[in-house]
Amino acid sequence: MRLRAAGLLAIALGLGVGACGGAAIRVAAIDDMERTRAAAGAQEGAKLAPEAYARAEQERRLSLAARQAGDDVGAMLHAQHAIAAYEHALVVARLTRATIELADAQKAYDDASARAQGVEASRAKLDGDAHQLEERLRVAQRRLLPAASEPTDAEHEAARMVAARSMAEEARLLCDAAGLVAPGADGLADAGGELTKLEGRLARNVRPAPIDDAARVRARCLDVLTRARRAADDAGGTDALLAEMSAAGGWDPMRDERGVVVTLRGAFRGAELTSDAAAKLKDLGRVAATHPGFAVQIVVHDAQPPAPKDAIDAKRAEAAAQALVGGGAAAARTKTELAGARLPVVDPADARDRARNERLDVVFVASPAPATAAAH
Question: How far apart are CA 352 and CA 85, in angstroms?
């Protein structure tokens, strides 16, 4: 405070020495202000930092007005404030430009990564004879299947039953995804028949738990989906969509064996969509419309067993499908699934976290668009 008072006193004394001394100080400050304003950087501040630039312009007007009124001290102070404000606007403008350039660079990187992944997928597709690859895949899958489960106690048997139901549900979603890729996919009917028998045994709560059969059926459905996707010639489209949605922000997409998955939580109030979920689903419908090479699988999950009545989940699934179609998704290429509480992400017995199990998955499954849809 003492330094500031001393500085002001010195300025006042300097101005009081004579009219020539006061004019020199006044003109020098205002000239500096005008030079700063005329610099190229100031014009950049006017474009990219309009609020900061507007404050500088206001200080400039006050300085010129004070000069016109004969207030030398006020004119100089406002001029110095204007200079500081112009320089601040320049700093804000450069920060804004750097942020824009960073976003552009990130997008270019994501695009380049997506293209690289597409090239890699195309190159891998050319390796070897197709028949030999399929035979090797079948052999590898058989090797990955778990050995037959040994008898166990009641607690572990109950856990095996839960795992068997989860794997059966995963198998159903995989087989349904294969049906979206190619309705007549090779092996789909046989895998579906095995899955139906397995689900019947699970419904009867047979013992011992058919966990080995569930693992085999899941592997069978995954094999059908893998071969159907290869025949459909995805050519890296799934990776490209994942990169695009990740770069867009706000979706937190992930990739699983079916395709690109977007999960919405708190999407329902009763059987109806919340307004926020409806808006997000319409946005996802627009994504589907601009990417006709993808079908859409909608999966409704419940928080805990016993699951709500199928009628409630069916209404939820229908509401989600209508919102997606309303955004532009093709109704013929949108399918709903009711997973109940068979695929929890947290322990359903945990009262604090089990609400996370209730969710809505929207899965973009890479599949060739029909000729009429592509032409449209």
Answer: 52
pTM for this predicted structure = 0.58
In contact, 66 and 81? CB cutoff 8 Å = no
Would you call the peptide bond into 348 cis, given omega within 30 degrees of 0 as the criterion? no
- Distance separating alpha carbons of residues 119 and 203, to the nearest angstrom: 46
**What does the pLDDT look like over 211-263, one tens digit per residue?**
889 999 999 999 999 888 887 666 568 888 999 999 988 889 999 999 999 99
Listed in sequence order, the DSSP H helices in 182-303 are 188-203, 211-232, 237-248, 275-290
Helix/strand/coil percent split, the chain, to 5: 70, 10, 25
Residue at 3: amino acid letter: L
Q: What is the DSSP string of 26-85?
A: HHHHHHHHHHHHHSHHHHHHHHH-HHHHHHHHHHHHHHHHHHHTT-HHHHHHHHHHHHHH
